[in-house]
Amino acid sequence: MNPIFENTATAFSLKTDSELERAYFLFKMIANEPLVKMGTLMTNFAIRAKLPVEGLIRATVFDHFCGGINEEDCLPVVDRMWEKKVCSVLDYSVEGKEEEDPFDNATRIILKILDFVKEKEAIPFAVFKPTGFGRFALYQKISEQKELSDTEKAEWQRVVKRFDQVCKKAYDLDVALLIDGEESWMQDAADDLVEEMMQKYNKEKAVVFNTLQMYRWDRLPYLKELQKRAQEKGFKIGVKVVRGAYMEKENERAKEKGYPTPICESKLATDINFDETVAYIIENLDIISIFSGTHNEESCYKLIELMDKNGIAKNNNGVWFGQLYGMSDHISFNLAANGYNVAKYLPFGPVRDVMPYLIRRAEENTSVAGQTTRELSLLKKERKRRKI
To answer: Higher confidence at residue 212 or residue 101?
Structure first.
């Protein structure tokens, strides 16, 4: 297969020389695990102490990995990427709230984004996290099939209402809606609620998308059972397929609580699970649409091969590739240049509120073997090319 991901001129075509240097500097820093740990501690301290560090954070890590502090602030980035046919997914990345007001506020923001998205061909999806609309502990209690108090029942109905408001608006505006996956011990409640929304709003096509984290060994069987129910009840399925984001936490909790880990036994097993699930979806594209969220080049090549083998057009709206903004531009921009549907997750929000997201990005890049090394080698290659 033509190694399309080696083209750094296309990959970094939107980056100025100074932005390229900043990216190289950031990934050099991220490659140093002790430095990431020290930087995380210092950043958390500075924010808690209300030190004036927002300008520094904004000029470096924030602007590399985020689109802006609000949706309007993201527009220049959205428009620039769209020039290269790379779409955006506006991701309000404020985490860790427990009170009701932030849940209602998050709902208002997603509803506002849906109106915003409708006017922009460059933004074909909206997205939210289940815990953006309700307390983690409430999802967990429902997932564990524990009896809810009357207060909790009323609280859950408010969560359901938030989901329904947003999914209905997405359906009315004909905008696809990605719902992120979270920890396994709260995910059953989220899965059931998302399925309820699919049954209601995915009659003609996939509007509502759930997320399958493929480091979980049970996700392909879950998808097959979901497909049976979809065929019986007459609705379409939308799934975002990712490897997953909570592996250490999942394994630690399983060990602590004494139950079998839901995580695949190895990285290889996860890779196989991911690729087999993608292949299954492509075989059932009449009922399942896919957003393949991966930074793994081999998985992207395998999906390209599957599409070619099955005669699926590059721009088939049932197949999307997705990566995070600030990472794997060699995948995103080269896929788009070759005619495939590609969207970048574009996080936004107040600098201080988005810091947990940014810290997780840095920690994940440090822990994923080869990811940062690959980014650095491509950036170095492009720096050298520009100097010739």
So the answer is: 212
Residues of the chain by 3-state class (helix, strand, coil), percent to 5:
60, 10, 30
Q: What is the mean pLDDT of the chain?
A: 91
pLDDT score recorded for residue 43? 65
% of the chain exceeding 70 in pLDDT: 90
Beta-bridge partners for 324 = 345
- Supply the range of the domain harboring residue 14: 1-66+352-388
17 and 49 housed in the same domain = yes
Question: Which residues have a Cβ under 8 Å from the Cβ of 53 and sit 6 or more positions away?
Answer: 43, 46, 47
What is the value of pTM for the model shown? 0.92
How long, in residues, is the chain? 388
**180 and 36 together in one domain:** no
- Residue 130's CATH number: 3.20.20.220
Residue 214 in contact with residue 277, Cβ under 8 Å?
yes
Residue 114 has pLDDT above 80, yes or no: yes
What b/e string do you get for 332-370 counting C-beta neighbours within 10 Å, with b at 16 or more?
Answer: bbbbbbeebbbbbbbbbbebebbbebbbebbbbbbeeee
